[in-house]
Amino acid sequence: xxxxxxxNFGRQITYLRLAVTDRxxxxxxxxxxxEGIEIVDRKAxxxxxxxxxxxxxxxxxxxxxxxxxxxxxxVRKDFMNFLEMLDFNDLLDxxxxxxxxxxxxxxxxxxxxxxxxxxxxxxxxxxxxxFKTITRRDEFDKVYxxxxxxxxxxxxxxxxxxxxxxxxxxxxxxxxxLTKYKDISVRFIxxxxxxxVGQKQTSEVWDYTKILNEINEAFSDIEKLEDKxxxxxxxxxxxxxxxxxxxxxxxxxxxxxxxxxxRITSTGMFKNCLFDDGVFNIRDFIREGASNGELKELFLxxxxxxxxxxxxxxxxxKSEVSESMSSIGG
Length: 330
Ligand code: SAM
Ligand code: SF4
Fold this sequence. Notes:
- There is one protein chain.
- With 330 residues, the chain is of the alpha/beta class.
- The chain is 29% helix and 17% strand.
- The protein has eleven helices and twelve strands.
- A hairpin with a 6-residue loop joins strand 8 (234-237) and strand 9.
- Helix 1 crosses helix 9.
- The two termini are 33 Å apart.
- S-adenosylmethionine binds next to strand 3, strand 5 and helix 11.
């Protein structure tokens, strides 16, 4: 039997987050600087063929779920063709996509034919002007239209809301209220310093507990849902609502114990943890002629060293956390 990717803490890796590009059509304040973001040279990006091969090899080692992210996946030329190509990998049970939604509408019919089960749509405000301030682009109408189309589609829809102190915390309750009559799962994400600049000063820290307190004050009867093993969010619902909501403790990192994830950035950097600074460049290894057997050996040996949690990973970094989520892949 083929070896499986298991780390020194007994955690099996079954989930790959793959950033297909570092480019984006938006400039969210918590993710990228307004200008001057360093876009990598096209040749430095993994090709689709390389991404397919890496994913195939990982799937032979037990990865059965892939999330495609970026940057904005739909910005990369021929992304839909890549998605269809990846769908041929019979060892994958699920392919999911994280997107800002601005460019997805015309592809929905094609996506529905694939083993894409769910779309994570990022939307941090229900107000057009505020959305524009956060993303530095006037694309609210397109994104909201995508939300409505996704709701009607057969795909599961999750809304990603980054909770930003002093910017959108007054909308937390409105987002939860949406789940009363919409069959969506809203997930509030703690803001992290992956913005291309580094840690920023905020007057209030909106962590898991504070977000939950805010919701509890507005809805006295929220129910805790059972969380799937390795879920990144702690999940809840308001009784009799169509949808649900969750909180992702991305920064307070209370979910690391069950982590089943690895990441590969758009330039082929392998990351055992969101908070490490990259452990190996797969692109260079492949371009130097590595065989699939050598790739497997490599993956098995680096996964074994996955740090226990995000705090350990951060402590082992050579540099401060300051890269952008757009190049890491959120
Ligand atoms: N462009 C796509 C999108 O926005 O959905 C995919 C890439 S984006 C980097 C993936 C997710 O990371 C988004 O939901 C985004 O809101 C989140 N994200 C980006 N920067 C973040 C940060 N500094 N803290 C928390 N979440 C962040
Ligand atoms: Fe682009 Fe997504 Fe980053 Fe916003 S969060 S700038 S949409 S990559």
